[in-house]
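Researcher: Here's the sequence for the chain we discussed earlier.
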Amino acid sequence: MGTFRLPDLGEGLAEAEILEWHVKPGDHVRADQPMVSVETAKAVVEVPVPFSGIVTALHGAVGDIVATGAALIDFDSGTVVGSMPATSTREFVELGVVGSAPTPDASRVRVVPVARALARRLELDLKGIAGSGPDGAIRLDDVLAHASIGVPAGTAGNGGPIPAGLAIPAGASAETLRGPRRAMANSMSLSRTQVSGSTVCDDADIHCWSRPGDYTVRLIRALIAACSAEPALNAWYDSANNARILMPRIDLGVAVDTPGGLFVPVLRDVRSKPAAELRAAIASQKDAAHRRATQPADLRGFTLMLSNFGTLAGRYGIPLVVPPAVAILGCGKAREDAVVAGGKVVAHRRMPLSLSFDHRCVTGGEACRFLSTVIADLELPD
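Model: Thanks. This is the structure I predict for it:
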């Protein structure tokens, strides 16, 4: 009998939630037929049967959260594509033989790849962290718990029930965070721990706009101009090596609010796209987010972020930077304000802006020049 382990479904994802099994013990299965549907940080992914054979056991029920590299399903024999031995330091092993044991390496610590990356960023010694995964593997939650961030005392962070001792008022209900909400909690904990955040705010006078309402495309155009004037904010910060990485193109993460939680799909290379193509891409990503059909590749690799929260409510805010990116622009609700123009008090429509940045690698001057360019571009006529 051999075991197929949950592979990394997208560049270091720590875990996935089982949504639906398409096979059961005793089934004769064929390679590439649907095996299980899982939800990663923010996307639903269908994992196919790795090879033909007989299913002998399922590791996990619907609703369980399985760590990357943990046992997922047992087969009687064969060769598995995508298996991931717990002792491997690779994120994804392309070929493995069912039933074969990896060669032990006492010098390496069993650790989920994303947990290793986080420990490196926080400068933690993996040998001092107790692992809660299969065969003692260190999971993301183990690193967070060791660093005293993001995981309440008394929990293993494995998606289990609310810990005993938490008083729930009569009539209230409690639920474990899953899917997008769980991903948001982890991202915000990471932001709080790693980013030295600062925010500057100002307003753009958009009274000269003849076609109000196309805010997102105009904001993207303004961000493109700002990145050209001040490239320091379109970057990643590598805290482990104390280095910044200036990006040659703008891959913009745009926050999308849905009933299921917050999604941040990425618009690739926005500088090269005309307005009509940007509108189509925005509409497509919003639709996918609401249908929970966003692809994992569309949720990673952003170099800059935009939150147009003013479409809902709010004037100014303190948007949180998600590493390794170093900046996020928040746009509040536009409204008419009393301003002085030509020596008279008149009503002008203005757009409030909040720019948060990682002060470890972005100076206040760079942030202010960036925001000033955003404002100057927004104040141009259509």
